[in-house]
Structure formats: C-alpha cells, structure tokens
Amino acid sequence: MAHSSVSAFSTAPNLKRVGTHNGNFHCDEALGCFMIRLTDKFRDAQIVRTRDQQVLESLDAVLDVGGVYDPSRDRYDHHQKGFSEVFGHGFTTKLSSAGLVYKAVDAIDNGINRYDTDQPPRYVNNTHLSSRVGKLNLDWMDPDQSSEKENEAFQRAMNLTGCNVRFHVKSWLPARSIVAECLEARKDIHPSEEIMALNIFCPSGGIPWKLHLFELEEEMKIDPSIKYVLYQDDRSKHWRVQAVSISPDKFESRKPLPSQWRGLRDDELSTVAGIPGCVFVHMSGFIGGNQSYHGALSMAKDALKLL
To answer: What is the DSSP letter of 45?
Structure first.
C-alpha cells in the first residue's frame, strides 16, 4: 500500500518524520501527533499516514500503528497482543497512543506529575472530543475520497485536539488551584461555609470552576457542600450568584434561589428581596445577578434561609 503524507506540512529534508495509519482516523492518533510535534525532537515534523510496514520502519516515530511499543525508538502502538502499559500511580486503564506519547514526554521533560495521581481515576466525558474528531472524517457521500482530502481532514483533527490541549493546559488545569483556594476561603465569606466567592483569587467568573468544585469537595471532604458561587460577569461587570447543581451532569440545583424571586428583574426584584441593586433571577432559580458583590452576597445569604 502506498504511503501518503499530509500535504500541508513541510517536507524539508531536515525535518523528522512521524507516522500514523491512513484511512479513518480517531481522536487518539490525532492528539498523539499534535503532542509529539510540540517536543523539541519532533518540532513541526512531517506526518506520514500509511500502513506500509516498510515505510513505517523508515520513520523517526510511529503512533497507533506498526504493532510495536518501544519508547526508546519512539514507537507508540497499543494494538498488539500482550500490550499492558498503564500510566501508573494508581491509574490502571491501558494507554492509547496519545497516552503513550504523553507518558514519554512527561518523563523526559519533567520527571514529576503535573497533578495529583494518588486518587482513583475517574472517567468524565465532558468534551465529546472523540465524537467531534470522528465527524471530521470524509463523508461517505463525498465523491472525492482521495488521500489528499483525507490528509487535509486529519490536519483539521490535529488542530481540533490541539485546541483542546491548549485549553486544558492554559485554562482548565490552572483553574483547579484557584477553586481550591476559594474553597479554603469560604469560611471568611459566611459562617455557614456554603458560599464560595471567586472574587478573592480571580477577577473573572470565566474560569471553568464547576467540575473542579465537585472533585475538590470530595477530596477536601467539604461538609456542608457549597450551595452558591459568586463571580463577576466579564461583560456587564455585574455580579452573579449561581446555585451549584446536584452533580456535574445534572441541571437541578442543590438549593435554587428562592421561588418568590424567580422571573423578577431590577426594581421589582430588589423590592421583593429587600436587597438593593438586584438585576434578575432566572425562572429556574439556578442563577441571579446584582450590580455589586455585596448585593450578590446578600442574595446568597438570604437564599440560604429561604425555601
């Protein structure tokens, strides 16, 4: 079978060549190819997509094909019989090619873990990235099924997984420490310890705090659980009071904002709540707003006492 390379990448002779299989692609090899090209050794390497064993043997690195796992030779396949590599540190799920690349890169560059691994692993599908990558494969109805079109689609898949990596590295993971600090500071917000404010350590409510909150509550043995989170809206500069849901995948709140406030706005809401500066409360009671931090905090405090 003839090999094919992603035509958009440079084919300069001094660049390394990284191989993966052609045909239908998945999130695994797209992410693996993206990550390995971030390393100094394989910076901007040419991607060669093929199942031709002779071609694969001539390449500098091979991911998700070839039947060999040998990081000393940059071979990262996981399909062969007898494969049993795991990340370690309590994680027992077998690694795919992207995981094998990450493990090799992490061991070389850092020598330490980037996050705590002494807890049992969880699987939470909160991005559906695999499904999104799968949909980038050529449509069976497309009359052009050429390797060039397939390689263009694979490059889009690499870019998509790359965006996801950047989000987690630059935004999602750093947010964890912020949420942990805010949880510790809840005692200074209200005696109940059921209100958390993001204003102390982060000026923006745009940080991805929700999943971190659930995980940290369990790890830190937070009791009672957080009922409301306060944060500033980036655009309006008003403050939000958001009721925490009962679980990451549920919309139902642990303690919705009071029913008598729901659906009201501005002066009418301020009058009914007895709190100046109220802006709104959603009909479901999962979120409300106030013009100031102290107003939003008052809403949260009163909501704890009301049904």
So the answer is: P
12-27 pLDDT, tens digit each: 667 899 999 998 888 8
Q: Are 90 and 115 in contact (CB under 8 A)?
A: no
Strand extents, DSSP E, the chain: 4-5, 17-20, 46-49, 61-63, 69-70, 75-76, 86-88, 91-94, 195-197, 228-232, 239-243, 278-281, 287-290
CA 26 to CA 63: how far, in whole Å?
Answer: 12
- What is the per-residue pLDDT across 162-191, written as a single tens digit (0 to 9) for each? 777 776 666 777 888 889 999 999 999 999
**297-300 own/partner pairs: CB under 8 Å, 24+ apart:** 297/189, 297/190, 297/195, 297/197, 297/230, 297/241, 299/241, 299/257, 299/261, 299/273, 299/275, 300/190, 300/195, 300/227, 300/228, 300/230, 300/241
**Confidence band for 109, pLDDT divided at 50, 70 and 90:** very low
Determine the pLDDT at residue 269. Answer: 97
Residue 247's closest CA among 223, 283, 205, 211? 211
Is the Cβ–Cβ distance between 246 and 253 less than 8 Å?
yes
Token pair in block for residue 13? 């002779």
- Checking DSSP bridges between strand 86-88 and strand 75-76, what pairing results, if any? unpaired
Name the residue among 232, 222, 220 with its Cα closest to residue 292.
Answer: 232
User: What is the sign of the dihedral through the CA atoms of 24, 29, 31 and 37?
Assistant: negative
**Which residue matches tokens 């109940």?**
192
